[in-house]
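Predict the 3D structure for this chain.
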Amino acid sequence: MECRIRVTGGELPQAEIDTYIARAKEKFGATPQGIDMKVDGDYVELSYDFGNVPFQRIRRITGYLVGTLDRFNNAKRAEEKARVKHTLADGSLTED
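Done. Predicted structure below.
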């Protein structure tokens, strides 16, 4: 995947740009789709664009942060099934 680079406020040598791309891969575990680099004297402000990052809903159930219940054992599944669902004044259920 090609990484779009935009440098504003000055110029950067290609070796420094390549270093910022490598650092992003190392730090975030993915190649950004784009990096905006704003040069301000000796400082460079970096803004990464990773595009659409998949999102998984996380809920707190029986004291654990979980996305799905597929890794719960039978006891935790029973605990989740027996928990009390709270309602609002209008009778609608609250979010988990």
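The first helix runs from residue 14 to 28.
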